[in-house]
Design a protein that fits this description.
The structure holds two protein chains of two kinds.
Chain A: E1 2-10, E2 15-24, E3 29-33, H1 40-47, E4 55-60, E5 63-64, H2 69-75, E6 76-79, H3 91-101, H4 110-120, H5 133-145, E7 151-154, H6 163-178, E8 182-187, E9 198-203, E10 206-211, H7 213-219, E11 224-228, H8 232-240, E12 245-251, E13 254-259, H9 266-275, E14 282-286, H10 290-303
Parallel strand pairs in A: 3-8, 3-9, 6-7, 7-8
Antiparallel strand pairs in A: 1-2, 1-4, 4-5, 9-10, 11-13, 11-14, 12-13
Chain B: H1 2-17, H2 19-40, E1 47-53, H3 58-69, E2 73-78, H4 84-90, E3 96-100, H5 104-109, E4 116-123, H6 127-149, E5 158-165, H7 176-203, H8 205-210, H9 216-246, H10 254-278, H11 282-299, H12 312-318, H13 322-335, H14 340-364
The chains are: A alpha/beta, B alpha/beta.
């Protein structure tokens, strides 16, 4: 359904995309996971026919993004990273407008947007600019769906949205996927990766790994600990200077740690931290999540 | 067509929901007409007048008395000679001076000895005021001539020599309407279109519009259609106000006048579109419109400063200012009552300019971002 081959895109002084390749199957919910500046938006704009790649090719629904952009524009739903609806139009007016530019009406495709629309329907006469962050994104999704597209491109739809709305948003995506829609979604939130069928982990214009989220986690072979103490900053500094440290990253109030020789270095680490006089020290073995895998891949990436 | 109608509807919502847009669209033209109109001061009360009486005879005294007795002038000062006029004008003590040369009375009754002359010198730094004043003065002198002629045959003749200091061209009282029309239409049509299109870019909605099946030409057309209509209403507003408040006539064909206005609106709109293809945000669009359109329209169109007194290079440059041609057309139709035969050349110039701008915009309009 989506086929990206060796796509590169350079802005004046940075390489935003560096030979990206991946494919998304029909009916798949595919996630592009990566921090700000990874190149997600550039990738989405190329696929939505809004930017030309410098190199490589891409096809959406078997149409070329450069030559057959007109066909693609008729058949995709695109939700840009920035809120891009008319703030001075009401919810209803926005929806009607976006339906009209695709030569359809809300009624024609109502079942497509029904579950999402019902959540924003109580505010249908409110101006889009006066909606909360979560409501805005739901409206934007409705507008991207109102013409019943075959492929949906959602660029960071949950950024800046509260936890409850994020969850509702993802429930809607999964429902759409179950109806057979192909969805490409990007997010900087690693915890959302597990909701996708497959994810591509992206960093500084390159894809480090493409796989099902469970498979990525399974690949993580190292032993992982969460360490906590009264002063997280000092703890991090001390861990970084520990001689057998492999990786250490702050993760909420914990620090996630892997060691060069795994379990074998643990006793030394305990001693070391006691010498440094950390109070309320707790060390627990944990199972990795996507973010740990991401950090691990990133470290390897830098080393190579 | 379905999408187009909805697009225009959406655009109309934008216009009528934004107070600032509305203010610029309708507030500004009205304020400008009233400001310009009253700055001209058509109705002048009693004005101060100075005399230089070099004749010192009974008839010069009679003429001065007649002027003083009129409803328009107070003779406030007697100046010693012509040379002192400049000084007196610079002090802004009066705006008009009547000079009666020596032997006025003698020449009047014995034409063989010379011609009876009076000279009127006006401070034309306010050209409209100066015209009105000299018109009043010559009218009074003509009446005076009529009075004294009844006692003599053949009729007595006073030769009047009117001189306008500081602005020898003497622009008509009415000329502000064509100029203002060009200015407002340029401002409203070009700047507002440029701003409204770049706003879509700035808020990111252009991204969604481009990713939709809407053809770019339809996006632009949908955006400018309401402005064509509103600009036309503005043109009617200016003509109406000019006629109603300031009695500015339309001597020629109103239909032709309105048709030419529509053409000029299209010129301005196409310029606005062109600006929007260059500007990345509303602020840049505004700066380009003000600096690149408004300034030349005011300075180089002949609206305020006469083109004939400009350096050759500027006169040449003025040919590229659409407003110059539009003002010529309007003056021909409104003030001189000329028809199509007189304005077709200027119309062609505007038409070619418009087509050029549209072609350039189409060439420059991007079907993608950046």
């Amino acid at each position: 359904m989506i086929e990206v081959r060796e796509i590169s895109k350079r802005y004046v002084d940075i390489l935003a995309l560096n030979k990206i390749s991946f494919t998304v199957d029909k009916g798949e919910l595919f996630g592009i996971i990566g921090p700000d500046g990874a190149g997600k938006t550039t990738l989405f704009r190329i696929l939505a026919t809004l930017l030309l790649p410098d190199d490589g090719s891409a096809r959406v629904n078997d149409w070329d993004v450069i030559k057959q952009y007109k066909k693609i524009r008729k058949n995709i739903g695109y939700m840009p990273g920035r809120f891009s609806l008319y703030q001075d139009l009401s919810v209803q007016e926005n929806l009607e407008f976006f339906a009209s530019i695709f030569h359809t009406s809300i009624k024609n495709n109502y079942e497509n947007i029904q579950t999402i629309y019902e959540q924003i329907a109580p505010f249908k006469n409110r101006k889009a600019g006066a909606l909360s962050g979560g409501m805005k994104q739901k409206l934007a999704l409705c507008c991207a769906l109102v013409h019943n597209p075959e492929v949906l491109f959602l660029d960071e739809p949950t950024t800046g949205v509260d936890a409850v709305s994020r969850q509702e948003f993802w429930e809607s995506l999964i429902e759409l996927k179950n109806k057979g829609m192909t969805i490409l979604v990007s997010t900087p939130y690693m915890d959302e990766a597990s909701l996708c069928d497959r994810v591509a982990l992206m960093q500084t214009g390159r894809i480090m790994e493409i796989n099902a989220p469970e498979a990525i986690i399974q690949k993580f072979s190292k032993k992982l600990w969460a360490i906590k103490a009264d002063n997280t900053y000092h703890l991090l500094k001390d861990l970084q200077s520990f001689q057998h440290i492999d990786t250490c990253f702050p993760f909420g109030e914990n620090i996630h740690v892997t060691l060069l020789h795994g379990e074998a270095d643990m006793n030394d680490l305990r001693k070391y931290l006691q010498e440094k006089q950390h109070q309320e020290l707790t060390i627990t073995t944990i199972l990795p999540v996507i973010e740990d895998c991401f950090m691990d891949l990133m470290t390897e990436d830098i080393l190579h | 067509m379905f999408a187009f109608i909805h697009f225009v509807k959406k655009e109309t919502y934008h216009i009528f929901r934004d107070k600032r847009t509305l203010l610029i669209l309708f507030g500004m033209p009205v304020v400008m007409i009233i400001l310009f109109g009253y700055a001209i001061r058509n109705d002048i009360g009693r004005s101060d007048l100075a005399v230089v009486d070099e004749a010192h005879d009974a008839y010069s005294a009679k003429l001065i008395a007649e002027i003083n007795a009129s409803a328009y002038f107070d003779v406030v000062k007697v100046l010693p000679n012509e040379a002192s006029i400049d000084n007196s004008f610079r002090k802004e003590e009066e705006k008009i001076v009547l000079i009666i040369p020596p032997h006025f009375g003698q020449h009047l009754f014995q034409p063989q000895t010379g011609k009876a002359q009076v000279r009127i010198v006006a401070d034309a730094s306010d050209p409209n005021l100066a015209t009105s004043l000299t018109n009043y003065a010559t009218a009074i002198i003509n009446t005076f001539q009529g009075h004294i002629s009844t006692i003599s045959q053949p009729p007595l003749a006073i030769i009047q020599d009117v001189r306008m200091l500081y602005n020898p061209e003497m622009k008509s009282v009415y000329e502000f309407v064509p100029g203002l029309m060009a200015l407002i239409l340029m401002l409203v049509s070009a700047m507002m279109t440029a701003i409204t299109i770049t706003r879509e870019k700035e808020t990111g909605t252009m991204e969604v519009l481009l990713a939709s099946p809407l053809p770019p030409a339809l996006i632009i057309l949908g955006k400018i259609t309401p402005y064509i209509l509103l600009s036309f209403i503005n043109a009617l507003l200016i003509l109406g106000f000019g006629n109603f408040l300031f009695h500015v006539p339309v001597h020629g064909s109103l239909i032709l006048l309105l048709a030419e206005s529509v053409l000029f609106i299209l010129t301005a709109l196409s310029l606005g579109i062109l600006i929007s293809t260059v500007a990345v945000n509303q602020q840049t669009a505004m700066m380009i419109s003000l600096g690149g359109l408004l300034m030349p329209t005011v300075v180089l169109s002949g609206f305020i400063f006469p083109l004939s007194s400009m350096p050759v290079a500027l006169q040449w440059l003025a040919n590229f200012i659409p407003a110059k041609w539009f003002i010529i057309i309007l003056r021909d139709i409104m003030l001189k009552g000329n028809g199509w035969g007189y304005v077709w050349k200027e119309t062609m110039v505007l038409l070619i300019m418009t087509l050029f701008f549209i072609l350039l915009s189409i060439k420059r309009f991007k079907i993608r971002l950046s």
